[in-house]
Design goal:
It contains 17 helices and twelve strands. It is α+β, with helices and mostly antiparallel strands. It is globular. 52% of the residues lie in helices and 11% in strands. A hairpin with a 4-residue loop joins strand 3 and strand 4. The longest helix is centred in the middle third of the chain and has 32 residues. The strands form four sheets. Strands 3-4-10-7-5 form a five-stranded mixed β-sheet. Strands 6-12-11 form a three-stranded antiparallel β-sheet. The protein has a two-stranded antiparallel ribbon with strand order 1-2. Helix 9 crosses helix 10, helix 9 packs antiparallel against helix 13 and helix 13 packs across helix 15. The protein has one domain: Cytochrome p450, CATH 1.10.630.10.
């Protein structure tokens, strides 16, 4: 039996259903593989095989360590993300909302459309290429030139030396913001990412709350500047569009989430792609022989190590998913890491193959109405960054690294490389 949570919570939000002890025990017996899954299996490096075993036995499973259902098959995840699936993000327990606030990623239907539409046009494929290609190349060059010198050998931790400042600078450039302290901005988004981990640790949310308050002050200051002095930036265009009608608080909330996609996921996609290429010398050699293959390497990297590794939804009403009955207002998580390794879609899914023909079927950019707003720009940035790194650093080698890890967002915390 499922108890509670049929009424709306604060600000019209649903409340997650409460599962009593008897129902929990029944589900544990019905889904023994899910019941045995540990939270560390979803977060730590080297434990991905536990998710593969779960997908084979129980592709939609009750996972007490998560406090809800977990989907590990691509077909079921896609079904959960389509607009008519009966799912919602407008729930009080949504940690993305708790960390980043009320914005396009935590709203549904007409409200989601109202908040997202003003930002869509500049992020379309052709517009993104025309607006930002030159800036992306310039940022790559300005960051790599001091590292490589003129034909000099060297080594660096690629995250701090390139990926993080590149992501923050490009976010600032794209949105027309002055974000000079790249380490500070990056630290905010580390705190936001940690706040989206469903492990019950309240200190994560406390750090995210403080980061949000500090970032809000910076964004409010930037918004006042573009209100006073309009320019051609995305922020200025949206702020001065009479049809947009977003309040300053709403605009700041949208900037927070757009920046999130521009910072956390971009540095992850760059680091993950470089790491996988360095771990697969034959694939790296093929890329160096034909740099047009970088795009395929990026897509395959996004599949194998998705920067966004977890997606959450809640059921509005009772649903049946892959033959499993799920009650109303229940938490349903999707492991993008597991979904992207589903052999029903991807042949030899554990093989890193830069020529994989269907890598774009991965759900790394989500699916449905909440699919990634900056998908085209993200691909452009990552392909350009990886290409520039490989061209600037001949005989690039992996010196040291921490394996990619993370529950909600996944990348190596440290990636040390050297070059001749």
């Amino acid at each position: 039996m499922t108890t509670g949570a049929t009424s709306s919570g604060a600000a019209g939000l649903l409340n997650q259903a409460v599962i009593d002890e008897a129902e929990d025990l029944r589900r544990r017996a019905r889904f023994p593989v899910g019941a045995a899954l540990q939270f560390a299996d979803m977060e730590e490096a080297g434990r991905e095989s536990a998710l593969d075993r779960l997908r084979v036995a129980e592709p939609v499973s009750w996972v007490p360590a998560l406090g809800g259902w977990l989907i590990t098959s691509r077909a079921a995840a896609r079904d959960m993300l389509v607009p008519n699936a009966g799912a919602t993000v407008e729930v009080a327990e949504n940690l993305v909302r708790a960390s980043l606030g009320t914005m396009m990623l935590t709203s549904d239907g007409a409200e989601h459309t109202r908040l997202r539409t003003p930002f869509e046009r500049p992020f379309r494929g052709q517009e993104a290429a025309e607006l930002f290609t030159r800036y992306i190349a310039g940022e790559c060059d300005s960051l790599l030139r001091p590292l490589v010198g003129v034909g000099a050998a060297g080594s660096a931790e690629l995250g701090a030396a390139f990926a993080a400042p590149f992501a923050v600078r490009m976010a600032a450039r794209v949105l027309g913001l002055s974000l000079d302290d790249t380490e500070l901005i990056d630290s905010f988004y580390v705190a936001f990412a940690e706040g989206m981990v469903y492990d019950g640790d309240p200190t994560r949310q406390q750090r995210a709350d403080q980061a949000r308050d500090d970032l809000n002050e910076i964004l409010a200051r930037e918004l006042r500047k573009v209100r006073a002095t309009p320019d051609r930036s995305i922020t200025s265009v949206v702020a001065h569009d009479p049809e947009t009608a977003l309040t300053d608080d709403e605009l700041i909330a949208q900037l927070r989430v757009v920046m999130f996609g521009s910072i956390e996921t971009i540095q992850a996609s760059v680091l993950n792609t470089i790491l996988l290429l360095l771990q697969h010398p034959e694939q790296l050699a093929a890329v160096r022989a034909d740099m047009s293959l970088v795009a395929g390497a990026v897509e395959e990297s996004l599949r194998m190590i998705p920067p966004v590794a977890f997606i959450e939804r809640w059921t509005r009403l009772a649903i049946t998913l892959d033959g499993i009955d799920i009650g109303a207002h229940e938490f349903v998580g999707m492991s993008v890491l597991a979904v992207n390794r589903d052999p029903a879609t991807f042949v030899d899914p554990l093989l890193f193959d830069i020529r994989r023909g269907n890598a774009r079927k991965a759900l790394s950019f989500s699916f449905g109405e909440h699919h990634c707003l900056g998908i085209h720009l993200a691909r452009l940035q990552t392909v350009t960054a990886v290409t520039t790194i490989l061209e600037a650093m001949p005989r690039l080698r992996l010196l040291d690294h921490e394996p990619p890890a993370g529950f909600a967002f996944r990348r190596p915390a440290r990636l040390v490389v050297e070059w001749d």
